[in-house]
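Minutes, project check-in

Agenda point 3 was the complex the collaborators sent over. CS summarized: two entities, 548 residues total, and the question is how they sit relative to each other. Sequences were read into the notes so everyone works from the same version.
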Amino acid sequence: MKAFEVLHPGVHTTIQDLGRPGFMKYGTPASGVADRFSARVANSLVGNSPGAALLEITLFRLELLALNDFAIAVTGGNLSPMVNGNPLPMWQTFFLKKGDRVAFRARKQGFRAYLAVQGGFFGQNFLGSRSVFVRGLMGSILKAGEILETEGAGVKPTSPKSLAKDMIPPYPADNFLRVILGPQEDRFTPKGIETFLSSEYRVSPQSDRMGYRLQGPAIEHLHGADIISEPIARGAIQVPGDGLPILLLWDAQVSGGYTKIANVISADLDRVAQIMPGESLRFRAVTLKEAHELLRKEWACFEQVQRFILEQTG
Amino acid sequence: MPDWPRMRPSGDSAVLLEFDNRIDPEINRSVRSLALAIESDPLPGINEVLPAYRSLMVTYDPLKIEYPRILKKIKIWTEKAARIDLPPGRLFRLPTVYGGVHGPDLKRVAETVKLSPAEVIRVFSETRFLVYFIGFICGLAYLGGLPESLRVPRLPTPRTLVPAGSVGLAGGQANAISTDQPSGFNYIGRTFTTLYHPQIFPPIPFLSGDEVQFISVSEEGALEERGKKATDFL
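CS then shared the predicted structure for the full assembly.
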């Protein structure tokens, strides 16, 4: 089914799903939605499986014309979604009529919003995923005039669903990101580690889905920033020779030769997705055990939300 | 049990296994043997096994497997790896045009190493480079085995765009850029065979352990192979 005509493509809008894990040894990052909770919830609200392809919208100015009657849900950062000039309610199912105009006007909170459509968006499949990864020649950002189609033709209309108020994540949450030190924490001076854990870092404008460059006090190395190139995990914080950390994210290179001081824990990566360039953040070290407990807690929270949505059927 | 590899967490979903801290074909064989031991005896919850020069990363889902269980299993995998006979790598012989617009740094490299451009081409094209591993972005192969006589530093300022297929060297390494991308390597030639295709599995032709040779051909000869898969030149 034809869902939308793109009237204005916005700042950086891409089709994403849960990505293509499993190809790093072929030099391909997993990519996929930056804020997994918001994306999964958006899909659940329109009756899709949590991993269906949807739009990841950055900042504002995206404008879409509905070409049919169908259900959508908008979640994630609040970028002032509007329908025909009126506020479009977020975190709930919304039924569009043919000719409706959906626009994202101004950023209020967060940085990335997700728009799921009943049936899921159609997108070109690269290595088993529809996630756009521009540098890997896997699709491109949205263009004006493009027609967005859904995957299924006759998806049955879904009944409206919504989240309870206290299930909606606050943006911004506090700006502390929890990290596990290493794997090269021994390549920094105690003073360098202290600088990293006690300073405030500002996300530079040269930040994107590959990584966030951070501005703040330089971190002191013990003896140089170079290591023999090795694989890079998602959320790794590498510190090149200038001492300024770079947080490597969803579309990052899969290997590199700079020391890594720490790695953001998986449970905090969704929050990273909602931090906008210009905002500040700080780091706090936790143990591996704590990181795993926090991830289990985060997953339990998603499952609870998921059950809450499914119970509204009928 | 030897005390190698060293194991340490790389975030909460990956463990880094490190061998001796050198770029060396024998150490890389230990890496590849361990990678193969893990892949041939998979454990639910383990997602990916990523070999590199002298280390490998094992990624896992902490919701599906406990970290101590992985560490225990790594000891078993390491013992198995010692008994693994690695399959021989393949040899790719890629037609390459050297110098001119396709190898803008050839003259300067020749001056730096005090050889004639023809000598640089001969030494480089006779070298069988070892694919240590695949990484960076778009399946870049990390090639080792550059002769000592061709050691040149990286460019002080990287080029913002180097065309796909460019064949270059820096430090003790060589590479063939898989897609148009920035690079600080010195480029002395170009192959027009396809080194990356995002819709084919696997998207890149090489695997760690393979060998690559950049055979010198005329510009006409190189252009004739435009768009052919690198695997056609085994």
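Noted in discussion: The interface with chain B takes residues 21-29, 126-127, 135-138, 180, 182-183, 228-231, 233-236, 253-256, 260, 263-266, 288, 291-292, 295-296, 299 of chain A (CB under 8 Å).
Follow-up: revisit at the next meeting once the mutant set is ready.
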